């Protein structure tokens, strides 16, 4: 069982979501986040007031998957989130010890 | 549990079974007939009999004994309104402490037994003295005493409790009780977004719910008891019973609403098996399939059933609002003084008394007077009295009479739209529109609004009905308008720090009323099933604009906002807003900075009205960034995007203006104007400019002054010449006019078109219409060399004395060489003051700079002047940019 965390461009959320649903990933947690990697942002001026856009808006997707689905999920994200520009984001994969469904206390892959 | 079971009397198992059987019978009765009130009465009677039996077994076999102790039902149970699985409030009231001490254990035993019988008893023991004190920390207890009912024990003690103790409490502390009750009601309403139109409402706690019905009853009873100084039962003091202005229909409607909601609440509790009052989507469907509270057993559609729900809730909200309003004046003398001060707001049609508007005449009014009632409400945040509501109702009946002969979409008289537009951009516009909707005025003006009356559209995001969502959007604008006047710059819980920035945009709008109209209409298409709602809303907007006789350019703006109302949100969430192509495409769609401002605010309001958490600071920031970048794009790209004779836009304008003259000449006239010229001017204005251009050889300077709402506008056409821009700016300044906005454009043949919007500080033109012609002549004289603008300016008083500078804005001068291929862009930001633009433009002219395009804006006291400059037909080099900067800073620093 793995946790897959992807930081992507806000504009790519729908295509990524649809692609994941196509391969059978139905559940996900989506958050509106800000941050920067190597793409450090820039400075804008609006009517004489300077403002720095250093933390750029991004979307964070968190998915918990059985091991056999991880590769296809990664491929789906890579295919749909890539625009080829700086700022396309990153994918992180973690090991997960256990999952428990609160309603009926199912455990393991069955709880996903 | 097992411990309790051993302590039960031997006959207890049969009592448990009997209770369960009786509850099942009552439930079956409810399910067969669907009558909530009947169930409540029978359920209360059943519980009464169980409690009396236990009292006889555990406390006293004699029903009116022992002396000095009685058992009373309170709260909902006291009113004989005991819902399934609800708490039942029981008080053991004792004459004094020694009177109840011997019964401590039997009382505890009785409570345990009731719990074991599945009754959710909430009991306490109080001395009669404790009952007579106001418990401000436990208001529920004091309020629940209003509904006490005798169950068993010392009857004389109960009579003393009711007719002396509680009566004295109300007479002595009634004002505090009322104030606390209103405060907690207001907090409860705030928790539920202050609206009745939730898609999944709480039938008890939400505004217009059962709790509100009881608040109205309690307030009426407290008032009646205080006034008459005798105990009055719930049946003796209905909401308006003591008021000469009582409208019997309202009380009846509220009672029917109470019966409906009681039935719904019983249904919810049975469905959930617990005290859960949330009317979820799933339960709407079940209730509608049963025809619950309508025609039991006859299925209706969920949407229709919910409309019925909102109709009932609205009538409870109505009587509660009036009950609270009637009780408010006694709150404090300071509040009363403030309300009395507002009496000064009275006018010949309406008087204002204690924060409420009353009609001066009982004769029905026409549209203008009727709308002025709501304008008064919106302008001064006042409320309508019952008399004003009745007058509005009668006026509406009179107005409907002739309209009934024709179509509901017939054209209204010319004074209606000016009267309506006045109330669309005021601090209390949202509340005034809600009142208009409640009284049927809005649907009469805008028949399409009926389509979304209490309309439920189910999705995971929207929390309110479609009509309320629209009012919420307008409320967001009203809040932004208020925020623009605040100086503390505080952050809002959902807007975050971005609230201030949207508020600034809101304060800059030239025609805020058009944005409000677009918000009223933007979702009306949701009432047309099977159709793209934007297309449906555009159809409604078209007929409404025709009905109200709205000027075609304004109609276009409204149609633009409705047609594009999802565009900005879609761009923010589905496009890369930092991509230049996205920006260019979005800017092309929005066309002008003014429309961009309106669309940005519409989007912000639309998202914020979906639910209280929808506009996260994250989204607000994205929205504002797209706005700021597009606004910058407009000011930086104007020079790059000029019209060509072969452009499609030119062909379209040519077709529209075919009657004005030769199409080839029109193409030559448009050639080289920035593209925004077509978006910023109506076809009739372009036609007029074109006609002027044809006569430019005979009349080298053409000038026209027009009134535009609260401002004036002067349009000047001339062949390009040195000091042209500075001369017009100087002439206006010499006349005491404060320039707010300028668009200075030129076509390829060197024909200059300058449009100055200005504020007539001394109302010279308004008070003396003949001065308009003199001003026009003055501009012609200056431009033709007959008068010298510098001489005219010398006679002016110090212009700084005319405007009090509340905020100090330092002067900034910056250059941009990159955005235009042909010009250097100069941006000057400075404290706005009369004559400022003349100083800047005269300095530029003296330095032999040619102004190709000028875009001048004023935000509150900040002037933002953007000039596209050339010198000797080329960009300005860096060393000369320094010369210009120094000259401008020096000249603007002078007083």
Structural class call of chain B reads alpha+beta
**Strand arrangement, largest sheet of chain A?**
2-5-1-6
How are the strands of the biggest sheet of chain B laid out side by side? Answer: 8-9-11-10-14-15-13-12
The run of helices and strands of chain A is: EHEEEEHE
The largest sheet of chain A, given as strand count, sense and whether it forms a barrel, is:
4 strands, antiparallel
Helical amount of chain A: 10-25%
User: Radius of gyration of chain B, rounded?
Assistant: 35 Å
Sheet with most strands of chain B: 8 strands, antiparallel
Overall shape of chain A: it is elongated
Low-confidence stretches of chain A: none
- The count of strands of chain A amounts to 6
| Anisotropy-based shape of chain B | elongated
Give the largest chain-chain interface (CB within 8 Å). A-B, 20 and 22 residues
Number of helices of chain A: 2
What is the count of helical runs of chain B? 38
- What number is the mean pLDDT of chain B? 86
Q: Indicate the proportion of strand residues of chain B.
A: 5-15%
Instruction: Quote the distance from N terminus to C terminus of chain B.
Output: 89 Å
Over the alpha carbons, how many angstroms does the gyration radius of chain A reach? 17 Å
Helical coverage of chain B, percent range: 40-55%
Notable characteristics:
heterodimer, A: 112 residues, alpha+beta, four-stranded antiparallel sheet, two-stranded antiparallel ribbon, 6 strands, 37% strand, B: 895 residues, eight-stranded antiparallel sheet, four-stranded mixed sheet, 38 helices, 15 strands, 54% helix, 12% strand, elongated, disordered N terminus
